[in-house]
Specification:
- The chain is mostly beta strands.
- The chain has helices spanning 2-14, 27-37, 43-61, 71-74, 82-95, 112-121, 311-316, and strands spanning 64-65, 122-123, 140-151, 165-174, 178-186, 202-212, 215-226, 252-255, 265-274, 278-293, 299-303, 320-333, 336-351, 365-379, 382-393, 399-410, 413-422, 443-453, 458-469, 480-492, 497-510, 513-528, 532-534, 537-545, 548-556, 558-562, 568-579, 586-589, 599-602, 605-616, 622-633, 650-661.
- It has a domain at 201-453: Porin, CATH 2.40.160.
- It is globular.
- The strands form three sheets. It has a 28-stranded antiparallel beta sheet that branches.
- The chain has seven helices and 32 strands.
- The protein starts with a helix and ends with a strand.
Length: 662
């Protein structure tokens, strides 16, 4: 009865929006478009999307002045590649500062998406440091964000109070030179305010200095690093093969500003400029990681979930210590760039391989390292870039190389090629680059992507990728191969109506048999007036094995309404889904809180409702957000299993977020 009461209340509350207008959702629309052009395959991808949402939310709250922004600052925007950054700087060098956003259309090579999204993260007033028009550039600003997720159900493995999620984040900033922050958090299922667990599960913070004399960056505390193509060091974000194009995914050194408990370093890092063309970076980090151990105390694998809910998960918390140090030198002259990177790591426990066939190429020992050289050459309309690395260890080492080329035939047509080879013996714990598998190892492949747009409003993206693993992967007894293709078209039917069609097919081997995955997604967007947007989405997923086929479908219409004064936003998404099994599950994006990514994995049969209320005070200092999510299954009386078992076909979650700026 609880489900039916809540459903009735939500429908009644949302009925008035049917006769109202539409507004621009800004950052929400950007996240929606990124989701439409990307694909999520596993839990690691979900974590990457969540971290990307937090990063974009921060950059949106702290826009940079486009006319005076450094190249390194522009490269933090994940939708800009090197070509586009250089095109912006060249236009400014020849024509002076931009005075209106319409001038972006005059910059050769700038994509339509970049033209649309840049105003979300940049300003044209060089003296403006925030979205508050009355705040001087060198004013100290503060931001406090408090998020609480409350489940209206109980899981088998922990008390109801432990099922809540809490994240508290504070950020401070002085102009463009100094920033600082602190964070605490606990995930759902982790104990709090009880014996032995009185406070939060995770803590962190940072102090960062920018552009002070020859010191470009100095970070004390939690930070991320990424150089070259990410073959040696990259804590950056790579989300799907076609999500953001093939621009460089690394952005040098930057503060770790999100509440993520993994994929960052803790220590001190700095970048020093030596003249106008040479910069040198280095860092030292010491962290305690979570690791799964064998009975003899050696390391089986590093856990990246950040969850400490059960006794076994808590026993793994911080049981592995690692010292990491790295050095990077970068020389940039006109259209040429060359970089050198070196990494050394020492762990306080021995890594061993076990007896499984797929684990015979995993790293072994206490000490690991890697060196690389990266390059890029830009001669418009051609960009060539790449990195070649060699890893070292107590047992073995190997080679890895990634090279890519982008050629812009015109402002509307761009072709990209990418080649990669990662030896079975290559390994770097901090590597993250373009890949099919979970690590930068045991893979070779070739990918091609074509992006084109027409004056009639049609945008087309074609992508194909072939890949090969010489050594048996998990669940395989032999080498394996596969291929993937994506076709996506978006078309503006009118000024207020657009449609996106996406078809993705993947052929891959698992458990010594080949499977095929077909995904179709169609989204139609209508702007009804100035305040109301309707966005129905149709999902279809077909999963084929040699002796079985499963299918999943979902219809998820959505409505967004903003009051004329822009201070209140109402969003409602309600729909139906039906999948045969987990293999044919549907990944669906829904309205979400600030700095979170509302991704749902739907499987089985049932309905899903998500409603979001956002309030922005007239002074723009206070943000209040409330989200209600309801899932009702019609094919079961219980959900999940083990410690996450819910003894009900209904699952209702409340989320609250308060953000205050001063």
């Amino acid at each position: 009865m609880q489900y039916h009461r809540i459903l009735a209340i939500v429908i009644v509350l949302m009925l008035p929006i049917r006769a109202l207008g539409q507004s621009d959702n800004g950052l929400e629309e950007l996240l929606q478009e990124l989701m439409e052009t990307g694909e999520v395959d596993d839990e690691d991808d979900v974590a990457q999307w969540e971290e990307q949402a937090e990063l974009l939310s921060y950059l949106h709250s702290h826009p940079m002045p486009l006319n005076t922004a450094l190249r390194s600052e522009l490269q933090t925007l994940p939708f800009l590649d090197e070509n586009q950054v250089e095109a912006i700087k060249e236009y400014q060098a020849h024509n002076g500062p931009l005075h209106s956003w319409t001038e972006l259309r005059l910059i050769r090579g700038l994509s339509l998406q970049a033209m649309k999204w840049l105003p979300l993260f940049c300003t044209l007033d060089t003296g403006e440091a925030s979205r508050d028009k009355h705040m001087p550039a060198d004013t100290v600003s503060h931001q406090l964000m408090n998020r609480l997720d409350v489940p209206l159900y109980r899981r088998q493995g922990w008390p109801w109070t432990h099922g809540m999620t809490h994240k508290l984040l504070y950020r401070g900033k002085y102009g463009r030179r100094l920033e600082w922050g602190a964070r605490v958090s606990k995930d759902a299922g982790e104990p709090m305010l009880c014996k032995g667990h009185w406070l939060w599960d995770a803590y962190g913070g940072h102090l960062t200095l920018h552009n002070w004399r020859f010191l470009q960056t100095l970070i004390i505390g939690d930070f991320k690093a990424g150089w070259g193509e990410g073959l040696v060091v990259n804590n950056g974000i790579i989300m799907g093969k076609a999500a953001l194009g093939w621009g460089r995914a690394t952005t040098g050194l930057r503060s770790h500003r999100s509440t993520s408990e993994t994929n960052f370093m803790r220590g001190v890092a700095a970048t020093v400029a030596i003249g106008d063309e040479l910069s040198v970076s280095a860092f030292y980090s010491f962290r305690h990681l979570d690791a799964s151990l064998y009975k003899d105390g050696t390391v089986r694998s590093i856990s990246t979930s950040g969850l400490h809910r059960t006794a076994s998960e808590q026993s793994r918390k911080g049981n592995l210590g690692v010292h990491s140090s790295a050095f990077h030198a970068n020389w940039h002259h006109n259209k040429y760039q060359i970089g050198l990177t070196a990494l050394y790591q020492h762990y306080n426990r021995l890594f061993s391989r076990g007896s499984s066939l797929y684990r015979q190429i995993t790293p072994k020992g206490y000490r690991f390292g890697a060196v690389s050289a990266d390059y890029s050459y830009r001669f418009s309309p051609l960009l060539i870039a790449g990195e070649t690395a060699r890893s070292f260890g107590e047992d073995a080492g190997g080679l890895a190389t990634l090279n890519r080329m982008t050629y812009q035939f015109s402002t509307d047509i761009q072709l990209s090629l990418l080649q990669r080879y990662y030896s079975r013996y290559y390994h770097s714990f901090l590597a993250s680059a373009y890949r099919e598998n979970t690590s930068v190892q045991n893979e070779s492949g070739l990918a091609i992507q074509l992006d084109a747009r027409t004056t009639s409003g049609l945008n087309l993206m074609l992508m194909a990728d072939v890949f090969y693993a010489a050594w048996p992967r998990y669940s395989m007894s032999r080498s394996s191969n596969g291929w993937e293709g994506i076709v996506q078209a978006s078309y503006d039917l009118s000024r207020r109506t657009s449609i996106i069609l996406r078809y993705a097919i993947k052929s891959k081997e698992q458990s010594d048999q080949r499977h095929y995955s077909h995904r179709i997604r169609t989204t139609l967007q209508w702007q009804l007036g100035q305040h109301l947007t309707l966005r129905p989405t149709l999902h279809c997923h077909v999963y084929q094995l040699p002796d079985a086929t499963s299918a999943g479908y979902a219809i998820l219409p959505r409505a967004d309404y903003t009051l004329p004064n822009q201070h209140l936003l109402l969003s409602l998404q309600a729909g139906w889904f039906s999948t045969d099994d987990w293999n044919s599950r549907i990944h669906a994006y829904e309205p979400s809180l600030y700095s979170t990514f509302g991704l749902q994995q739907l499987y089985g049969r049932g309905t899903r409702i998500a409603t979001l209320l956002r309030y922005l005070s007239p002074s723009k200092r206070l943000h209040l957000q409330f989200k209600l999510g309801i899932t009702h299954f019609t094919d079961r009386q219980q959900q999940s299993s083990g410690i996450t078992l819910i003894d009900s076909p209904n699952k209702t979650d409340l989320q609250f977020l308060l953000k205050y700026n001063w």
